[in-house]
Amino acid sequence: MEKDLVEYIVKSLVDNPDSVELNEIEGDKSTILELKVADGDIGKVIGKHGRIARSIRTILNATNNSSHRRTVLEILD
C-alpha cells in the first residue's frame, strides 16, 4: 500500500512520470522504498530545503502507525 501511495504522489509531481522507478525491499521490522526519477525531476521530488521529501516521509509515517512497521524512503540519484 505504501509503495502505491508514494508512486502516485511522485508521479503527480514530476514531468516524466514514466521514468519513475520504485523498488521495495522488505526487512524484518522495516521496508525500504528506493525511488529513482529522471535527472530533471529530482528537484521536484526533493523540493526546496527538502520540504517535499519530508512531507512524503511524514505521510508514510502516518500510514505506518497501524501496521507497526517502519517504511523508509530513499531518493537515489
Automatic annotation (TrEMBL):
<dbReference type="Pfam" id="PF13083">
    <property type="entry name" value="KH_KhpA-B"/>
</dbReference>
<keyword id="KW-0694">RNA-binding</keyword>
<keyword id="KW-0133">Cell shape</keyword>
<protein>
    <recommendedName>
        <fullName>RNA-binding protein KhpA</fullName>
    </recommendedName>
</protein>
<dbReference type="GO" id="GO:0009252">
    <property type="term" value="P:peptidoglycan biosynthetic process"/>
</dbReference>
<dbReference type="GO" id="GO:0005737">
    <property type="term" value="C:cytoplasm"/>
</dbReference>
<comment type="subunit">
    <text>Forms a complex with KhpB.</text>
</comment>
<dbReference type="GO" id="GO:0071555">
    <property type="term" value="P:cell wall organization"/>
</dbReference>
<dbReference type="InterPro" id="IPR020627">
    <property type="entry name" value="KhpA"/>
</dbReference>
<comment type="similarity">
    <text>Belongs to the KhpA RNA-binding protein family.</text>
</comment>
<comment type="function">
    <text>A probable RNA chaperone. Forms a complex with KhpB which binds to cellular RNA and controls its expression. Plays a role in peptidoglycan (PG) homeostasis and cell length regulation.</text>
</comment>
<dbReference type="GO" id="GO:0003723">
    <property type="term" value="F:RNA binding"/>
</dbReference>
<dbReference type="InterPro" id="IPR009019">
    <property type="entry name" value="KH_sf_prok-type"/>
</dbReference>
<keyword id="KW-0963">Cytoplasm</keyword>
<keyword id="KW-0961">Cell wall biogenesis/degradation</keyword>
<keyword id="KW-0143">Chaperone</keyword>
<dbReference type="GO" id="GO:0008360">
    <property type="term" value="P:regulation of cell shape"/>
</dbReference>
<dbReference type="InterPro" id="IPR015946">
    <property type="entry name" value="KH_dom-like_a/b"/>
</dbReference>
